[in-house]
Amino acid sequence: IMLRAELRDSFVPAMTKVVKLIAMYSYLTYNNNNHGGMAWKHEGECQLQISILISLLQLGLHATRGCEGAKVAFVQSVIPSSLLAPNGEDSNNGLSGESKDEGVATVRRGGVKTLVFCLSSFGDVNHCNIPSTTNSSNKTAIDNTQSGTVANVKVLTEICQLISSLCRYDDFRDPSFSQQPNPMAGSVGNVSSAHDHAMEFYRAGVLPPLMKIAKGVLVSIRDNGSAGDNCSDIDVGNEQTNNVKSTLMLSTVPGASKNGETEERLAASCFTALRVLAINDEIVQTMVALGVLPTVTGALELSLSLDEPPTKGNIDENAKKYTKQEINITHCVKFNGRKQRLAAATLGLVRNLCGNDEIKRNLCLGSGSNSVDSPAFVATFSALPYIFHAMKVYSETAIIQEHACGTLAAMALRRPANARAIIDGDGARLILTAMKRHEANVNVQRQGALAVRNI
Question: What Å distances lie between residue 191 and 68, 180, 276, 383, CA to CA?
Answer without folding.
Answer: 8, 14, 17, 36
